[in-house]
Each structure stands twice: as C-alpha cells, then as structure tokens.
UniProtKB/TrEMBL annotation:
Protein name as annotated: ACR
A family per Pfam: DUF192
Gene3D superfamilies in the cross-refs: Protein of unknown function DUF192
Organismal lineage: Bacteria, Candidatus Dojkabacteria
Organism (species): candidate division WS6 bacterium OLB21
InterPro entries (alphabetical): DUF192, Saro_0823-like_sf
C-alpha cells in the first residue's frame, strides 16, 4: 500500500469515527426507540383522556405528540389501536396542516382542530400505507386528532365539536 492510499484510508476512517462519536450525529443514527426492528412492535401508552362535548360518555385514551420527532413518528408502525384510542398532535402555532399515511398500518379518521380545540375539518377512513395523497386541514389548525377509522361516524362527531382534554 502506498503512502497516498494509506493517507486516504486514514482520512476516511477519521471522518467516519468523528461522525459516529459526534453528539450532533445522534439525530441521524437509529436508536433503540426508533430502529427498524422495534417499529413493528411499537406500542404507545395512551395515557391522556379526552372527550367531545357532543358525546361526553365516549372517553378517548390519547397519546400526545408534542415534539417534532413525536409528530413525525405519529402512529407509524403501530399495528393496532382500540376504538377509543388515538393520537393528538399538538403544534406551537395555528397553521394549515398536512398529513399522510406513510408507514401507517391502520386506517384512520383525522380531525383538525383550531386553537380552541374545535373541529374545523374531518377526513374519514384514510387508507393505510399511502404516501399519496396528502390530507390537508384547509383551515388553520393547532391540533390534529387521529382516531381509528369509523370513530367519527360511530360517535357522530361533526365540524364545530369541541374536544376536552387535560394537558
């Protein structure tokens, strides 16, 4: 091996080692919580209760997605949820929102809610595992609620309904 080849290999190894030990690189490397092997077994605690004013007897158990990472993960790779379970996405600001069903194994209903937790748009029975189309709120929304498909119809949820939830 020539000195030049040795130098090139040493530089490449140094770059790889710097990347692997760099604390900023953690966002680019798989972790135990987000590795491909664990996604298929992903379970959520659903530890927040909520209900709609129109049907206060139906209590939904929700997982709250507050961080950018939690919102990006959403219900991806979750294989099953009960009729009374879902995920509430909380955003910092009220803006038009867009969702897709990539890597989402279950059919969902999505409800977009404004800053006062009032439903501004409902999209029912989204097909799983679809990268296209995007599902848009059409109106500014600070929250989005994903429920098991059929929940909107079963609970007679409508535009204007208010969600009550403790954060």
């Amino acid at each position: 091996m020539t000195k030049r080849q040795f130098t090139i290999i040493a530089i490449c190894l140094a770059i790889i080692l710097i990347f692997l030990w760099n604390p900023l690189a953690k966002d680019f490397l798989p972790t135990d919580n987000h590795s491909t092997n664990n996604w298929s077994r992903r379970e959520l605690p659903f530890n927040t209760s909520a209900y709609f004013e129109s049907n206060p007897l139906m209590i939904f158990n929700l997982e709250i997605a507050r961080t950018e990472r939690e919102r990006a993960d959403g219900l991806m790779f979750v294989e099953e949820i009960n009729d009374n379970q879902g995920m509430l996405f909380v955003f910092e600001e009220e803006n038009p929102r867009s969702f897709w069903m990539k890597n989402t194994y279950i059919s969902l209903d999505i409800l977009f809610l404004d800053k006062d937790l009032r439903v501004v748009k409902i999209i029912e029975n989204l097909e799983p595992l679809r990268e296209w189309p995007y599902y848009n709120s059409d109106f500014p929304a600070k929250y989005a609620l994903e429920l098991k498909a059929g929940a909107v119809e079963k609970n007679s949820l409508e535009i204007g309904d208010e969600l009550y939830v403790k954060f």
